[in-house]
Amino acid sequence: MLTAAIVAILVTMLLALIRTFLGPTEYDRMLGANSFGTKTVLLIALAGYVLQWNSYLDVALLYALLNFVGTIAVMRFFEYRNALEERDDPGSTV
Amino acid sequence: MTAILELLSAICLLLGSVLCVTGGVGLLRMPDFFSRVHASGVTETLATPLLLMGLALQMEWSLDLVKVAMILILVLATNPTATHAMAKATLHGGQRPLVFDDVKDTGGEGSSKP
User: Fold this and answer.
1) Between B16 and which of A43, A54, A80, B51 could a Cys-Cys bridge form, CB atoms 3.0 to 4.6 Å apart?
2) What is this structure's pTM?
3) Residues of A in contact with B70 (CB under 8 A)
4) A68: Cβ–Cβ under 8 A, 6 or more apart, which residues?
């Protein structure tokens, strides 16, 4: 059953990767990358248990933290960049 | 006792796998960014605890179990936050949901009529 779960996670990672490459806007790409990162945490946890790696859960924990901080940072960047562009345009009101 | 734990673990892993693939298909097939956020965020928030609980039910009592619980709590706390931040940044970036214009138009007419 763990193997089936790993296969399901891999299929989901493939779908998220397709959305990341295909996405029309940068937000779609970031959403796909965030989903891919969360699935990577799950994959490390499950595959590490099946294959009996050493200290795999520490890697999964670190990856979860990095994924969250990276997503928040990139989204802050996009938000403020768009706000600055709108402020430069005198006709628009936010 | 072991058989019950394995059955519970199998149920958790199966439900989590189905939710995982559902979220992936929704992420790929939905027409709009906000519906994609919905499909991805909702299923991830439920599929991750299910898969991690299915893993934790198969492990022995050790420090690794605490680490799995830490990952679970961390993902449960950060995943909705990241999804919310993405949706907010997209809304501030100028994108609108597909049905947003209709709602805004009827609201504008309703507010301008009286």
Assistant:
1) B51
2) 0.82
3) 61
4) B74, B78, B79, B81, B82
Taking the C-alpha atoms of residue B45 and residue A64, their distance in angstroms, rounded to an integer, is: 13
CA B50/CA B75 separation, integer angstroms? 12
- Residue carrying structure tokens 């969250």: A68
Output the six-digit token pair for B44: 């991830």
pLDDT range class, residue B113, cuts 50, 70, 90: very low
Residue in chain A nearest B63 by alpha carbon: A57
Both structure tokens of B41? 């965020």
Would the CB atoms of A27 and B68 count as touching at under 8 Å? no
Taking CB atoms and an 8 Å limit, are B93 and A2 in contact across chains? no
pLDDT in tens, A64-90: 999 999 999 988 887 777 656 656 555
Calpha distance B19→B50 (Å, rounded): 9
Alpha carbons B45 and B24: distance in angstroms, whole number = 13
Taken as a whole, chain A contains a residue count of: 94
Domain boundaries in chain B? 2-97
Model confidence at A1: pLDDT above 60:
yes
Q: Return the beta strands (E) in B1-114 as ranges.
A: none
| B92 to A83: CB separation less than 8 angstroms, yes or no | yes
One-letter amino acid of B97:
P
